Amino acid sequence: MKKTIKILLIILIVLALIVGGLILVRNKYLPLEYQSEIEVCSKEFNLDPYYVTAVIRTESRFRPAVVSSAGAVGLMQIQPETGEWIAGKLDMDFSADKLTDPAVNIRLGCWYLRFLLDRFDDPIAALAAYNSGQGRVDDWLASDEHSKDGITLDEIPFEETRNYVKKVERFEKLYKWLYPGLEKTDGIVLK
C-alpha cells in the first residue's frame, strides 16, 4: 500500500513538473498578448484569430514598437506607406507613429491579410505576399516553375519567404493547442 502511494506521488510530481514546464514555455516563447484586439479585428475581417496570432508572433514576437531594418513597424510589421494606404481604405486618420499602437497595428494588419487572402484566393500565396510583396507573388504565380494553375503557389523560390510561411503555419498549430479558448470564426485556417 505504501509503495503504491509513493508511486502515485511520484507520478503526480512528474505530471506537475511537466504541466509547469509547458506553462513556462508557453508564456515565455508563445505568449498571447493583445488577445482582445486580435479577437475583435479577426472577427471584423473574418480571419481566424489563431492565424492572426501566428502572424504577429512571427513578425514581431509581440513587440509593439519594434522596427525592422526595412522600416516595417509594430506587431504586424506594417510599412508606413502601406499603413497610410490601408488607413485610407478604412477611412482612418493616420500617422506613422500610430503603427506602434497595438490596436491600430492589428486592425491595419488584419485588413491587409484579408485583402491578400481575397486577392490571391490561396492562403499560402497570401502569406508569401505579406512577407515578400504582391508583385513577387504575382510573378511566381505566372511562372510554370512555381505554380501549375496560376492560382496556387506550389513552390516559393525565396528561402526567407518559404521559412516565413512554415513558421506561421507551425505557430498557428501551436497556438491552437496551447490556447484553446480564442473566439473562433469561419475565417482562414492554415492546414
UniProtKB/TrEMBL annotation:
Gene Ontology MF terms in the entry: peptidoglycan lytic transglycosylase activity
Key words, A-Z: Membrane, Transmembrane, Transmembrane helix
Transglycosylase SLT domain sequence ranges: 42-148
GO biological process: peptidoglycan metabolic process
GO CC, alphabetical: membrane
TM stretches of this protein: 7-25
Keyword Ubl conjugation: no
InterPro entries named in the record: Lysozyme-like_dom_sf, Transglyc_AS, Transglycosylase_SLT_dom_1
One matching Pfam family: SLT
Family: Belongs to the transglycosylase Slt family.
Identification of the protein by name: Lytic transglycosylase domain-containing protein
